[in-house]
Amino acid sequence: MDKSLLLGLPVLLCCFRVLSGSLLHRDNAVGEVIVQKNDYSNLQIVQCRMCHLQFPGEKCSRGRGICAATTDEACTVGRIFKKNGTPWLTFMGCLKNCANVKNIKWSVYLVTFECCKGYDLCNEKL
């Protein structure tokens, strides 16, 4: 396992929080990441599955539990893949200003985020 990349995961998560609101409604977004923001404003608080670290074929190894997504949060699943498409790491939880993003390049990895807020533990099915 590449520990330097794993230690950079919190930095990556912070970047996605910034990206989820900064690239919306841009007409001249040529060559930029396309971010899809979902409108969850009419939905109530839901519970989300939480796991900070889960490697392929293993159970959750860190941060297992449930979190409650407030009105401006959503349940999320983040997946990190090697460039050849092999899964490397999965993480789940509640995320403010969540946005669906696909295949963001991060060093030698690709990162995908999926968001939901339709029902309790919806991120288990993503």
Structural commentary:
This is Prostate and testis expressed 1. It comes from Microcebus murinus (Gray mouse lemur). Keywords: Signal. The chain is 15% helix and 41% strand. About 17% of the residues have low confidence.
List the helices and strands and how they pair.
Elements: H1 3-7, H2 9-22, E1 36-37, E2 46-54, E3 65-69, E4 73-82, E5 87-96, E6 99-106, E7 109-116
Antiparallel strand pairs: 1-6, 2-3, 2-5, 4-5, 4-7, 6-7
Helix fraction bin: 10-25%
Number of strands: 7
H/E topology pattern: HHEEEEEEE
Domains, number? 1
Q: Under the CATH scheme, which architecture would be assigned? A: Ribbon
Tell me the overall shape.
globular
Secondary-structure-based class equals alpha+beta
Measured between the Cα atoms of the first and last residue, the distance is: 25 Å
- Sheet with most strands: 7 strands, antiparallel
- Extract low-pLDDT stretches: 14-35
**Helix run count:** 2
- If you average the pLDDT, what whole number results? 79
